[in-house]
Design a protein that fits this description.
Blueprint (H helix, E strand, L loop, with lengths): L10 H17 L4 E5 L15 H6 L7 E5 L3 E5 L4 H7 L6 E4 L4 H7 L7 E4 L6 H14 L2 E4 L4 H5 L12 E2 L2 H4 L3 H13 L5 E4 L2 H8 L1 E2 L12 E5 L4 E5 L6 H6 L4 E4 L3 H6 L5 E4 L6 H9 L3 E4 L5 H5 L3 H25 L2 H4 L5 H13 L4 E4 L4 E4 L22 E7 L1 E3 L2 E2 L2 E7 L4 H18 L2 E2 L5 H13 L10 E3 L8 E6 L13 E4 L2 E4 L3 E4 L2 E5 L13 E5 L17 H18 L5 H10 L4
Parallel strand pairs: 1-5, 3-4, 5-6, 8-13, 11-12, 13-14
Antiparallel strand pairs: 1-2, 2-3, 7-9, 8-10, 10-11, 15-18, 16-17, 17-20, 18-19, 21-28, 22-23, 24-27, 25-26, 27-28
């Protein structure tokens, strides 16, 4: 299996490791220490060697931060992880605060710490985050101290080694554009800001730009490394030598591949040059090192991020094929969920996750899961990013809901789908809440919008049916998705949080409104969709873009309260199911196909 269900995190980690961390803080003459979730590459999903926040606190979520003082500590988590953090973190050692509403920097600004020393590892915080930290420290009267040795690394005696998996070429058959062409495009973009070079710090950008993939990050085919791309289109790529073999050398014959140990020396040679850095992605260490090298910094968004987000025709075609195969696996799983074996209430969350993984594994070309399966039965489904383990596992009990959020990594695309199904007979409330979530999903799926529209401008459309009933959900409505890359990809997103990146044709985003009733159940309906080319509307003045669904799998009709849907919403559900049936029929047979025909019957 590609995932395990061992217990990770938990209060014991904070209980044992917080004293060790404070011992190192004392040795370095620090009164406080800031722990971001991110590693030096600003990864969301971390290699175990870099999972410092979990080591210090016991919290295993994919977003968070902590402030450690000598006599107190604060953990910051967002709304997705409120319930999880309450279980994983010792409340006697840590107070918990909101990551998105207060955050560590606003919290710090309100403290009175005059004359105290706050340690920070410049390699782990982006320049933007460091500047916010510095402003907050000034208000609190605390001195920021860049640490030479990370005190967690010094205290973490059994810290795993940094991953150094082989880096492999990603065939242009899947990429749709050669790396030489991409390098020229990025190099040419530097001329617009009169920059001589850009330092690429994001592993996802590295993978896209050089048409390479790696295995350093679980569930994401990312190679950890760095690159310097010049306005000429030439490039230096920095990787640990053990990651490089003859196949990669041949693939990158036009690129200078160098050991990671030579990165700082190469930056020193940029003296007198203008160097582009993205303050949202590049760590404060890069800004400091480039400045000390005597180079001028041009602040600019990663020039490969937007081109990476706008998928070309080959990538969209590949994503469609990946979702088609993935949809067949999901459908076989949904048929099993509807069987007497499961509906009897004897199967647990781990068995369900394993069954789904088995169906994906039977497909040809599965490279990995795109994230660890969220398999939430009953009250566990109310944890929107719940990770099942041997300590929390529950049975899919009769007369309850089961939420499953999962995805696969394939050479031609990355998938992410959530379905909520009824086990036994759902209550009237469950059906009404499910249908309300579905109405929000449909509203976004049917949307037409003009050029220049951002995700934050349309987020409320998916929430409006819930808001009308006094309901809401504490996560974004949609995130970008890579092409055999990260399942969470920017710069576009659909959420309440301000986002200034306009949605453009070829961008892939999720559509995933939800509802979560603490201690009872969770509901989420998620499809991936891509932005279409703008087209003229009969009688209209300006062309409009739309979303086209990539995800193909039936919805749970038993949970749809038909009387709550408008005729247009009925039509959308029926047309979606007709498409699912038509496209998946060639991939299914026997009981699976017969079940699909029933699941896709018109409302």
């Amino acid at each position: 299996m590609r995932q395990t269900f061992e217990v990770t995190g938990g209060p014991a980690l904070g209980q044992s490791n917080l004293p060790l961390l404070r011992g190192q803080m004392k040795a370095q003459n620090l009164d406080a220490y800031y722990i971001p979730h991110e590693d030096a590459y600003q990864n969301e999903y971390l290699p175990s060697a870099f999972d410092r926040l979990t080591w210090a606190t016991g919290f295993t979520g994919s977003a968070g931060a902590a402030m450690i003082l000598m006599n107190s500590a604060v953990l910051f988590v967002d709304g997705r992880y409120t319930l999880q953090a309450a279980k994983q973190v010792d409340s006697k050692l840590f107070t918990r605060e909101s990551l998105d509403k207060l955050g560590p920097f606003n919290w710090l600004a309100k403290q009175k710490l005059h004359g105290k020393r706050l340690g920070v590892d410049l390699e782990l915080v982006s320049q933007n985050a460091f500047e916010q930290l510095a402003d907050a420290a000034s208000l609190a009267g605390v001195e920021i101290v860049p640490v030479e040795t990370n005190p967690i690394d010094a205290a973490w005696h059994d810290q795993p080694p940094e991953p150094k998996e082989l880096v492999v070429p990603h065939d242009v058959v899947y990429a749709g554009e050669t790396h030489a062409s991409k390098l020229k495009r990025v190099g040419a973009s530097l001329l617009d800001i009169a920059a001589d070079a850009v330092i690429i710090t994001s592993p996802a950008s590295l993978a896209w730009l050089f048409n390479i993939r790696g295995g350093d990050v679980k569930c994401s085919p990312l190679p950890l490394g760095r690159a310097i791309v010049y306005a000429t289109g030439n490039a230096d790529l920095f990787l640990h030598p053990v990651k490089v073999n003859d196949a990669l050398t041949t693939h990158l014959s036009d690129v200078t591949v160098m050991p990671m140990s030579q990165l700082e020396g190469r930056i020193a040679k940029l003296k007198g040059k203008t160097v582009s850095l993205d303050p949202a992605l590049a760590s404060a260490w890069f800004f400091k090192t480039v400045t000390e090298a005597g180079a001028k910094i041009a602040v600019q968004a990663d020039p490969s991020a937007l081109p990476r987000a706008i998928k070309n025709d080959v990538e969209i075609s590949g994503s469609k094929q990946a979702h088609l195969r993935d949809g067949a696996a999901i459908t076989r799983f949904l048929r099993w969920l509807d069987s007497e074996e499961v509906q009897s209430g004897k199967i647990n969350e781990i068995q369900a996750a394993q069954r789904l993984e088995q169906h994906r594994e039977e497909l040809q070309g599965l490279k990995d899961l795109s994230f660890e399966t969220i398999s939430g039965a009953g009250s566990n489904g109310a944890h929107c990013h719940y990770r099942v383990n041997e300590a929390t596992v529950q049975v899919l009990e009769k007369n309850s809901l089961y939420l499953v959020d999962s995805g696969g990594q394939y050479l031609d695309g990355t998938t992410d789908i959530t379905r909520t199904v009824a086990i036994g007979e759902p209550t009237q409330e469950m059906k009404e809440r499910y249908t309300t979530v579905l109405k929000g999903h449909i509203a976004l799926a049917r949307l037409r919008f003009p050029a220049g529209t951002t995700g934050s401008a349309i987020d409320a459309i998916a929430r409006q049916p819930m808001w009308a009933l006094g309901l809401d959900y504490e996560h974004g409505t949609g995130h970008g998705v890579g092409s055999y890359l990260g399942v969470h990809e920017g710069p576009q997103r659909i959420s309440k949080m301000p986002n200034f990146t306009a949605l453009e044709p070829g961008m892939i985003v999720s559509n995933e409104p939800g509802y979560y009733k603490e201690n009872e159940y969770g509901i989420r309906i998620e499809n991936l969709q891509y932005v279409t080319q703008p087209r003229d509307i009969v009688g209209g003045d300006i062309p409009m873009m739309e979303f086209e669904a990539l995800t193909l799998a039936p919805l749970c009709s038993r949970l749809i309260e038909r009387g709550m849907l408008t005729p247009d919403e009925w039509i959308w559900v029926d047309r979606y199911h007709q498409r699912v049936l038509k496209e998946l029929t060639p991939l299914l047979s026997g009981e699976d196909l017969e079940w699909l025909k029933q699941a896709c019957k018109d409302l």
